[in-house]
Design a protein that fits this description.
265 residues; 10 helices; 18% strand
Length: 265
């Protein structure tokens, strides 16, 4: 199992492909490296793809009582240290949801280490309704019941059409949800609620691809519109019919946007 210590935390990572060009993908709160399977398959023939679990996620080190609270700066420093350990001076940086928010923070904190950016189904600040939703996630996670937590979050993450055709798949993910470390999930949710990069987005100079599902009800398209409007070199793509987990609901459309952006003819 490939792990290494970066910035004082044990991080799990996978490198796919052999190209000198590298894309790093950051997870959503309750996702992990496996969540990117469709993207890795599509992109690895064209570039090296680094997927990893942030602290608190997947197979990486979890939060324990007495540890400091998670912060965006800490996550960015973890990624920079991981890149150092893997001898990656700079790369394309991307992510979905929480990972798209980290992409913004990383670009502002380590601009020289970023080439192109991908920000999918993310926000640059937190408005009251979203704050209420994620605060409720943290409170439910704190009870320690994995199935209840999963069932309280799933309808925010997937569109109604996806529920209609993949309901059995969504039910099958209950067992996978039992692998979540809920104290760490609380930390990730609380860290998310501090997100506020909107005033600094004009400082980002890298070419940026902003993606959002048309039916994302957790982080509706107006958040992505704000990001695309504020970053000078940004383009906005709306995936028709997709919910918040657009990369899982419509991987072919999502991957084609990435390929067109990262591997132009």
């Amino acid at each position: 199992m490939p792990t290494l210590t970066a910035n004082g935390v044990e991080l799990y990572y996978e490198l796919h492909g052999s190209s000198p060009e590298i894309l790093i993908l950051n997870n959503g709160v309750i996702a992990n490296t496996k969540s990117w399977a469709a993207q890795v398959a599509a992109l690895a023939p064209h570039m090296r793809v680094l997927v990893y679990d942030m602290r608190g996620q997947g197979q990486s080190q979890k939060w324990k009582p007495g540890d400091p609270d998670y912060t965006w700066e800490q996550h960015a420093d973890d990624l920079a240290a991981l890149m150092d350990a893997l001898d990656i001076p700079a790369a394309h940086i991307g992510g979905i949801s929480y990972g798209g928010e980290l992409t913004q923070v990383f670009a502002l904190r380590y601009p020289d280490r970023c080439q192109k950016l991908i920000i999918a189904d993310a926000v640059s600040h937190v408005e009251p309704m979203l704050e209420g939703i994620v605060d409720s996630w943290a409170r439910v996670a704190a009870f320690g019941d994995h199935e209840t937590f999963y069932r309280s979050t799933w309808y925010w993450n997937y569109s109604e059409p996806f529920f209609a055709v993949r309901y059995e798949f969504l039910l099958s993910r209950i067992d996978a949800a039992r692998g979540l470390d809920l104290p760490s999930v609380v930390q990730l949710c609380r860290c998310f609620l501090t997100m506020n990069t909107t005033p600094r987005l004009p400082e980002i100079t890298q070419p940026t691809c902003v993606i959002v599902g048309e039916k994302d009800i957790l982080k509706p398209p107006h958040y992505s519109e704000t990001i695309a409007e504020c970053i000078p070199n940004a383009e906005l793509h709306v995936i028709n019919g997709a919910g918040h987990a657009s990369f899982l609901e419509q991987p072919e459309a999502f991957n084609q946007i990435l390929l067109d952006f990262l591997v132009p003819d």
